[in-house]
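We emphasize that the prediction below concerns an isolated chain of 283 residues; any contacts that depend on oligomerization or on bound cofactors are therefore not represented. The input was used exactly as deposited, without trimming of termini.
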Amino acid sequence: MQRIRTVVMDAVTHFNNDDGWAMASHVALSILMALFPFMIFGTALASFLGANAYAETASHLIFDTWPESIAKPISREVVNVLTVERGGLLTVSVFAAAFFSANGVEALRVSLNRAYRVAETRSWYVTRAQSLGFVVIAVLVIMAISFLLVLAPLALRLARQYAPWMESIISAVDSWRILVAAMVLIIGLTASHLWLPSGRRRLIDVLPGIGLTLVAWMAGALMFASYLKEFATYVSTYAGLASIMIALVFLYIVAAIFILGAEINAAIINARTRPTVVQDRQE
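Result of the prediction step, given as a token string:
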């Protein structure tokens, strides 16, 4: 218990002293600003490569893990944006969308560097290229899943026809979208903690913070959705801006939890190395 208390106090203290709340605000605003450019860039690239189901898949993967009261108005606007006809892939607007999407990744990098208490040693063009790579990989993953959207209903129909004894398993698979969204979220968190901040970390070093982040995200989302349902007055206060303000507050909560997860990892790493340092000094 003493070690757990020490780790928690180290993480919370560093979070407060190193402008964690301000960084959470920066991450939330950057992600919100990057959301539409990311979807526009992904749709343009998917259309160029023939993945026509990209828009629906991306909407599900991004918003299925959000509370419905928060996700519904935003996802509706996203779909409206994605259904607008655009020109070819190689346009200035699409490249600008890719650049602004990478800004969201850069905000995550800065917050993780602070949380892990490291200074960025890579050149700016290396980190920017990595951020663009994250964006492109995310788009390609969503495209691959969008192809499954076409194949999955056919596979389920054939399974029901030729293997009716597997109905219980097939019914469970019918809810695969939520499972896929959760898996993409976990993989994205792991990749962010391992490769975005400067320095090297092992998988075992980042798992505690990732687990805490997922549990806290679920609890925070449920509490915020309950608050919106019972007590919130965002609509009367912000009128037409209510959906944006709700999404921004939700992303602020998510970002703060994300940074705290990295702070927990850093505190655990420090707790592991501290006895070794003290022993070396005594020798």
